[in-house]
């Protein structure tokens, strides 16, 4: 039995978290985490994608070009 996290599951979680926080920041102008915390999520996503390039998701934050503007 291993305690190692599943990288695919972690990438899925990171994609959802980053998308949610990006929307709160860019679309809603109402961030709920610090820039440093957001950057840490993005860095972790990049680390996992570098280690497991075969697991890069179609909805990966690293593939996103930008976000919708706030209304």
Report on the structure:
The chain has one domain (7-57): Helix Hairpins, CATH 1.10.287.610. Helices cover 54% and strands 0% of the residues. The chain is built from 2 helices and no strands. The protein has helices at residues 7-27, 35-51. The longest helix has 21 residues, at 7-27. It is globular. The N and C termini lie far apart (49 Å).
Essential attributes:
Helix Hairpins, 54% helix, mainly alpha
DSSP summary, beta strand count: 0
Structural class: mainly alpha
Order of helices and strands: HH
CATH third-tier fold name: Helix Hairpins
How much of the polypeptide forms β-strand, as a percent range?
under 5%
Query: Are there runs of 5+ residues with pLDDT below 50, and where?
Result: none
Q: Overall mean pLDDT score?
A: 90
Number of helices, where a helix is a run of at least 4 consecutive DSSP H or I residues: 2
- Classified in CATH, the superfamily is Helix hairpin bin
Largest sheet, in brief, is:
none
CATH architecture: Orthogonal Bundle
Give the oligomeric state of the chains in this entry, treating copies of one chain as homo and distinct chains as hetero: single chain
Distance between the termini: 49 Å
Tell me the count of domains: 1
Top-tier CATH class? Mainly Alpha
Coarse shape: globular
Question: What is the element layout, followed by pairings?
Answer:
Blueprint: H1 7-27, H2 35-51
Characterize this entry briefly:
It contains 2 helices and no strands. The protein has 71 residues and is mainly α. The longest helix is centred in the N-terminal third of the chain and has 21 residues, at 7-27.
């Amino acid at each position: 039995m291993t305690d190692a996290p599943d990288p695919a599951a972690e990438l899925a979680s990171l994609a959802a978290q980053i998308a949610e926080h990006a929307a709160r920041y860019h679309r809603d102008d109402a961030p709920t985490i610090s820039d440093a915390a957001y950057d840490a999520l993005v860095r972790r996503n990049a680390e996992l994608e570098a280690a497991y390039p075969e697991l890069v998701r179609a909805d990966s934050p690293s593939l996103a070009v930008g976000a919708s503007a706030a209304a």
